[in-house]
Structures are given as C-alpha cells and as structure tokens.
C-alpha cells in the first residue's frame, strides 16, 4: 500500500510542478500579445483623423493592465492577472500557447508552490477515496469493535476464577503459563 501511496503522491507532485511552472511562460506570452494589441490600437488611432473616445479608453485600460502586470511581484502576478485580464487577448494567447520548460527563478517558485498544492490536493483526494471506498481499494473492512461472543465471555470468567484461586498447580508437562507468570528471580544472563 505504501508503494501505491508514494506513486500517487509522486504523480500529483510532478503534475503540479509541471503545470504550475507553465504560469510564467503563459504570462510572458500574454504580456507580449497584450503589448502587440496596444501597439496596434495606437497605430490605428494615429491613422484616424478623429479618434473615438472608446478607443482611447481601451488603450488606456490595456496600458494600465500591462503596467500593473509588469510591476507586480512574482507571487502577486497571478492575482493581478486574474483581476485585470482582457478576454480577447487571453483567447488569442490560449490559442497560440505552446508549453515550455522555463528555467527561470520565477518558474521554479511557481513549480514548488504547484507541487505542494498538488500533493495536498492528492492527499485530500486519497483520503476521500479511502473514506468512501475503503473495502474496494484494500479488500478489507473497516475495523469496528465487535461485541464479545459467548465463548469470549466464558473464557474471561474462567481467567478471573483462576486468578482468584492462586497459582495453578504444576503438571507432569511443566508449569502452566499464565498472564501473571513471572520468570524466576536472578539474572538469566549471569554465568
């Protein structure tokens, strides 16, 4: 069972680290696409004689979004991204995104966080599966205390009677072993 648990945790750890390490690469491609969108809008605004206020507003919004993403810290960047993302730029980035193996410090931090979160998620999922499907996974039932049988109760009464009567007499086959039997005094390792 330990091998299955280790394999389960390993798969979740590798998957979490690999998935989370893609975050910086995706954000980098998103920022490139966002910058290209802003540049295209600025060129379109320059070619027009009268610039519509909606276009100016959109250029200012996307420029603020880009500045906020570039200025955010490594750990705050996903939250800033989620708060201010542009759906059209996001759709274009998702369509063109190619997974990569980033070797930056930011990717290592994201990978470590993703690995820890995935291990926690895997442990929670394993616990839920064990609670819901214990017998199918292990072939054993959960251990519930059972009521003592009639024979168990009789054996317990017999044991209680023997203790009240004192030590059992020796027989031809030797002394009877009991729960309160102690070895003879003296050190058995002494020569």
UniProtKB/TrEMBL annotation:
Keywords: Membrane, Transmembrane, Transmembrane helix. The keyword Transmembrane applies. The chain crosses the membrane at residues 107-134. Residues 182-191 have a biased composition (Pro residues). This is DUF2937 family protein. Residues 142-191 are annotated as: Disordered. It holds the Pfam family DUF2937. Residues 149-165 have a biased composition (Basic and acidic residues). It comes from Marinibaculum pumilum. InterPro entries: DUF2937 (IPR022584). The keyword Amino-acid biosynthesis does not apply.
């Amino acid at each position: 069972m330990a091998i299955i648990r280790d394999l389960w945790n390993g798969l979740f750890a590798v998957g979490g680290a690999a998935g989370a390490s893609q975050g910086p690469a995706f954000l980098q491609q998103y920022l490139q696409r966002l910058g290209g969108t802003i540049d295209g809008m600025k060129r379109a605004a320059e070619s027009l004689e009268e610039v519509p206020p909606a276009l100016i507003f959109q250029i200012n919004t996307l420029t603020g979004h880009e500045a906020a993403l570039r200025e955010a810290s490594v750990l705050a960047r996903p939250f800033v991204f989620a708060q201010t993302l542009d759906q059209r730029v996001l759709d274009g980035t998702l369509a063109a995104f190619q997974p990569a193996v980033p070797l930056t410090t930011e990717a290592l931090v994201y990978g470590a966080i993703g690995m820890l979160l995935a291990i926690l998620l895997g442990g929670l999922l394993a616990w839920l599966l064990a609670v819901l499907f214990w017998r199918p996974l292990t072939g054993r039932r959960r251990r519930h205390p059972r009521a003592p049988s009639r024979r168990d109760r009789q054996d317990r009464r017999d044991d209680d009677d023997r203790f009240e009567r004192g030590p059992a007499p020796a027989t031809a086959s030797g002394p009877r072993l009991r729960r309160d039997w102690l070895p003879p005094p003296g050190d058995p390792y002494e020569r």
